[in-house]
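Quick one: structure tokens for this chain, please?
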Amino acid sequence: MIDKLAWLTFKDQQLLCARSHGKAIYYIPGGKREPGESDEAALIREIEEELAVTLQPDTLRFACEFSAQADGKPAGVEVRLRCYTGEASG
């Protein structure tokens, strides 16, 4: 199981997604925790690294959690996303 965090943000009823260079699919921005990091701290760090925006910690809210087959991994390897909503600046 690959454990990741994701930021759900919507504009005009559309979900913000990104695509890495050389990849065919879109993903929800986020990433993995560093040892000892909370969900919120890790998500703030990852979003700043990926999108150059700053999440406002006091607006982060847990939204959902789901699992699915991990892209590009052998069958049976799943990724679990803990998803949060929140406001950003930048």
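The mean pLDDT is 94.
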